[in-house]
Design a protein that fits this description.
It is a single chain. The protein is 36% helix and 21% strand. It contains ten helices and ten strands. It has an eight-stranded mixed β-sheet, sandwiched between helices. A two-stranded antiparallel ribbon has the order 6-7. The longest helix is centred in the last third of the chain and has 22 residues. The radius of gyration is 20 Å and the shape is globular. The N and C termini lie far apart (70 Å).
C-alpha cells in the first residue's frame, strides 16, 4: 500500500495550498477532480516526470541563450551560468557591485522581458538610464535602440515583506501564462523580506521560495538572479564573514557568485556552479573603463 502523499509535495501556488488546507485537505488522495472547488488537474500534477535522453538534453543546452552583462571578462565567467531554469545568487558586502551588476544584466532586455523585484529601495532608474547610455556608446547591438525599447521590457515590483514576496511568485505564474518572452527575474535582495521571520519559519520559507522559483524558471524558461548579504558569525576560531541564509539556501540554489571590490576594480568568483568549475575574474563597469 503506497504511503500517503502530502499536498505540500505538489507544485501548487501558496494560495492554492492555503485553500486546500482551509478545507481540511492534507493529503493528495483527499482531492477529487470532480469537486467544483478544485481549480487544477490532480492527475496532471501527480503524473511521473517526463523522461528525456541525454542527447536531447545536450541539444536543449546548446540552444539556450545566456544572459549577458556585455562586460567581456565577466561574460566569459558567466557563460553557461545565467541560463534559463537556473537560480543564481550574487553575494557580497555593501559596495561589491551587486545591484549595479543586476542593472547591467537588465539591459539584456533587448531580447525579452525582465522582472525586477526590489526589496531594499536601492535601485535607481536614473542610474539605469546612465548604463543604457554607456551601452549605446560602447556595445554595437545597442547603438540603434532607443532607451524606451529597453525600459518598456522591464517590470518593476517594490516589496517589503515575505508575504509580498510570496505574492510575487503567484504574479510570476500568472504573468508567465500570458507572456512567453520572460528572460530574467531578479530579486534584489532575497535577505531583506525575510529579516523578520523566526529562524524555524525562515528555513521552510526559503525552501518553498527557491523550489517555486526553480519550478517557474523551468516552466516559463527564464533565468533567476537574486542578491544576498554577508553576515558575521562567531565560531571557535573567531569571527567569520559568510553569506546570509546559510546552508539551507546554499544547497538549493544552482549557482553562487561572490562579488567584491577594491580600488574600483571589481572581482567575481564562482563559488558554486552547476555548469563549470570555480573560477574568478576582474572586471570594470563601462563607465569606469578609460
Amino acid at each position: 500500500m503506497p504511503l500517503p502523499r502530502e499536498i505540500s509535495s505538489l507544485p501548487l501556488t501558496n494560495s492554492q495550498q492555503k485553500s486546500l488546507t482551509e478545507k481540511g485537505i492534507q493529503i493528495v488522495s483527499e482531492i477529487s477532480n470532480s469537486s467544483p472547488d478544485v481549480e487544477f488537474n490532480i492527475e496532471e500534477l501527480t503524473k511521473a516526470p517526463e523522461t528525456k535522453i541525454a542527447s536531447q538534453l545536450l541539444m536543449e543546452e546548446k540552444s539556450m541563450r545566456d544572459i549577458n552583462s556585455f562586460l567581456d571578462n565577466l561574460d566569459v565567467l558567466l557563460k553557461g551560468v545565467l541560463r534559463p531554469g537556473l537560480v543564481t545568487e550574487f553575494v557580497g558586502l555593501p559596495g561589491s557591485g551587486r545591484t549595479q551588476l543586476c542593472a547591467q544584466i537588465i539591459d539584456d532586455s533587448l531580447y525579452g522581458v525582465t522582472i525586477y523585484i526590489c526589496s531594499n529601495l536601492d535601485f535607481s532608474i536614473t542610474r539605469l538610464r546612465e548604463i543604457i547610455g554607456n551601452y549605446k556608446k560602447s556595445v554595437k547591438c545597442f547603438k540603434d535602440y532607443d532607451e524606451t525599447v529597453i525600459l518598456k521590457n522591464i517590470q518593476f515590483i517594490d516589496i517589503m515583506s515575505s508575504d509580498q514576496l510570496l505574492e510575487c511568485l503567484e504574479f510570476l505564474n500568472e504573468f508567465g501564462k500570458e507572456h512567453k518572452n520572460i528572460t530574467l527575474v531578479i530579486i534584489d535582495s532575497i535577505t531583506y523580506p525575510l529579516r523578520l521571520c523566526e529562524s524555524n519559519e525562515k528555513t521552510s520559507l526559503i525552501c518553498f521560495i527557491i523550489t517555486e522559483l526553480r519550478n517557474l524558471a523551468k516552466k516559463y524558461n527564464f533565468s533567476v538572479v537574486m542578491t544576498n548579504d554577508m553576515t558575521t558569525i562567531v565560531g571557535s576560531s573567531g569571527n567569520e564573514v559568510v553569506p546570509s541564509l546559510r546552508d539551507t539556501f546554499y544547497h538549493m540554489i544552482n549557482n553562487r557568485i561572490l562579488l567584491s571590490q577594491k580600488d574600483n576594480i571589481f572581482e567575481a568568483e564562482i563559488l558554486k556552479a552547476s555548469t563549470k568549475f570555480p573560477v574568478k575574474c576582474n572586471y570594470k563597469f563601462l563607465d569606469d573603463v578609460t
